[in-house]
Amino acid sequence: MAAYNIGICKSWADVVTIIIFSLFGIGSGGHNNTGLKFLISTNQINQQTYGQTQVYFPAFANTRPLHAILKHPAMSKVKIKLAFLGHLPHRIDTTKILSWKSDLFEIIPPIDRYTITEDSDLNNWQYSDDNIEQHLPVQFDGDILIAVTRVPIEENYYARRYPGNRACLSYHEMTEILNSDNIPLENLILRILYVASFVFRRYGNRIPLMHEDTNFSHDETRECIFDMNGIKTDVIYSLNRPHLCSACVETLTSCRIEKNLIEKVQKELKGIKKGLYYEITDFIKRYPVWTLVISSIAAIAIGLITSFLYDLIK
């Protein structure tokens, strides 16, 4: 990534000078071992190591390259590449996924397909991380690659992370769980897209590896997209009008995720829901008495309207 290499900032006067030079395009771009990548910061002193030289810049809340601030004043969308890994017999509506609109991410079409050429190498027919990883490309369009498969993956997780900002989502056992509660299969993919995008932004535009100590998910099931779902059947609670719980909102805000973006995502998540027919049946199951009352009133009203229209026509 190009940067402004203009020298060492010894005072605020040097900082102001560099900003003026940068605005008018003065200075050399590019990287070398002695150049210094100029970053805007404040509120605290941020330490930036560049090559063998350690430099301290007085800085603003967000530490971003100056040229990035000039070109992208707002946080850009995370670009996600989707792929199907192996044979997927499930009826997943790819049109619904590709047409999904979000202020957080965008999906780069088309959805690629990769063949599984190796057998499982763990107990219970599971595929190890190394096994899955070797089937995924290292180079791809976008910031993140998410592969969707039906084979069981390591430790019977339904999602795992790999080097190079890659991840795999497995529908092993998940299809039956979602179908039992009449949840569209696409909802799981959409939820993972939101989680992966937030994690990517929170950890400095990268997906942390499985062995890293992370805390972006919580064990308690709160109908939040960051539910851990250690008990797989709990996943249904975060796939029908899920949300970001208050604790996750606070965490994302502290990690410099824009508040207005979080608010937009909260509205978008309401669109991850069941079909209208199943929402009605859920209402009937949850409120049988109210359903009986409403249906009785509706029947009486229809009868009265029909009688009125009949007398009017006659």
Helices and strands in order:
Blueprint: E1 4-5, H1 12-23, E2 28-29, E3 39-40, E4 44-50, E5 53-59, E6 64-65, H2 66-71, E7 78-85, H3 94-98, E8 105-114, H4 129-133, E9 144-149, E10 159-162, E11 166-170, H5 174-180, H6 186-202, H7 246-254, H8 259-269, H9 276-286, H10 288-313
Parallel strand pairs: 7-8, 7-9, 9-11
Antiparallel strand pairs: 1-2, 3-6, 4-5, 10-11
Helix pairs in contact: 9-10
Low-confidence runs of at least 5 consecutive residues: 1-10, 24-73
Per DSSP E runs of 2 or more residues, the count of β-strands stands at 11
Q: Distance between termini? A: 81 Å
Count of the domains: 3
Counted by DSSP, the helix tally is 10
| Major beta-sheet overview | 5 strands, mixed
Say what the CATH topology of the largest domain is.
Collagenase (Catalytic Domain)
CATH homologous superfamily placement of the largest domain: Collagenase (Catalytic Domain)
CATH first level of the largest domain: which class?
Alpha Beta
Rg over CA atoms: 26 Å
Helix content: 25-40%
Strand order of the largest sheet: 8-7-9-11-10
CATH architecture of the largest domain: 3-Layer(aba) Sandwich
Structural class: alpha/beta
Give the averaged pLDDT, no decimals: 80
